Amino acid sequence: MTGEQFTIIVLVTALLIDLAVRVIAIIVVPRNRRPSAAMAWLLAIFLIPYLGVLVFLLIGSYKLPKKRRDKQKAINEFIIETTHGIELVTDDRPWPTWLRSVVHLNRELGAMPLVGGNSASLIGDYAASIAAMTVAVDTAERFVHCEFYLIALDEVTAGFFDALERAVGRGVIVRVLVDHITAIRSPTHKATFKRLTAMGATWQFMLPVQPLKGKWQRPDLRNHRKLLVVDGIVGFMGSQNLVSRHYNKKSNIRRGLKWQDLMTRVEGPIVSGINAIFITDWYSETDELLSRETVELTDEIVNSAPDALDCQLVPSGPGFEGENNLRLFLALMYYAQKKIIITSPYFVPDDSMLYAITTAAQRGLDVQLFVSEIGDQAGVYHAQRSYYESLLKAGVTIWLYPAPYILHAKHFTIDAEVAVIGSSNMDIRSFNLDLEISLMVRGASFVDEMRSVEDGYRALSRRLTLEEWRRQPLRSTILDNLARLTSALQ
Fold first, then answer.
1. Which of 319, 352, 382, 478 could form an SS bridge with 483, CB 3.0 to 4.6 Å?
2. Segment (H or E) for 234
3. Which of 312, 309, 313, 233 is nearest to 277 (CA)?
4. pLDDT tens across 176-190, in order?
């Protein structure tokens, strides 16, 4: 065989492989995937075939391994069986005509019921929320369940770690879950885990990427939940991680960035639901089902006051068949009659969410969006900005929370009826790739408190106008649009 013949064979083989890759991609990539995401993946594979295929094989599947999904189904069935009839909700206060169908939707998706007899308060001060959680841990008699996307031992959280150690010393069982990839990227991770081990706490990585130990899934599937449960009586959840306000990152410290978060402290039957989420995640990671760590609902736990809150938890993530948080958010957006106020640090909606929000504004509703003036993640920040013009044209009011703060709170209110708070951003990552937890609350007192928080944001923020937006430089528009394209790779 001559060198020329060999070259021809190599070229023909390469062309055939390239053609086969493209044909297979057209068949495989769009299956059970959003059209926008499928187009983004196909574009990547067609423009850079070998690298595109490699990346797709690495992160193309946004589902957890089948074993974990089966565990989630088993837990859902257990929750439905054990929570039947505990709703405790009365019709003393008239329900909005649409609320019952949303409650049914949430129950079908995430298995958790709507339960009454709860009380809740909001904590918007960063140090105060950690202090409140520390105080709660110091009251523990049976167990402390602590689950956060990021837990770091530093000067801000040292008191919380001391409280955990005191609890262990009293004979309290302390269990800690922390996201693997996020945790090991923290500058203080070695000191953090050393301290937890030394105090006698039982801790476990969530969604560990440890192929040598047989633990593997798409590496950017993360557990983004933030919750704390003390004795099944007091619970905390929201947007804040257990870490210093600048996350101990040199780049954040250099820029002077400070995170602004919102947590809620809850009491009542809903705390058992938050604990059930922890039990689910603990079981998924350890195969240990904590059936004993449950609390009987007594008159002391159930708030019988006329203004008690009705609450429903909505867990979501790649362990579920559907996008539970997205479906909840969409339902509420379309049911809203007067006002929608959204706070989201990373606002990169899919088409359905963008349409729901802009349609609400075009229906004449007062629709407001709070976002940060600056960003801590360049790609997400520019992708978010690419949606501003469509929102402004539809009549959405955009408020820019001032630097050097990163408005990291995640919540929204619907009319005077319902508020939602939790760990979920309104972006494609939170809808598809991250495990999240959202709390839907019905109760005028809670909605009013949330509106006071929103008023505080508004007093500090400035309004972005369409005229100002159209004056942005061309280079910013190009960066925004490129970031928007890559955000669809899911």
1. 382
2. strand 234-238
3. 313
4. 999 999 999 999 999
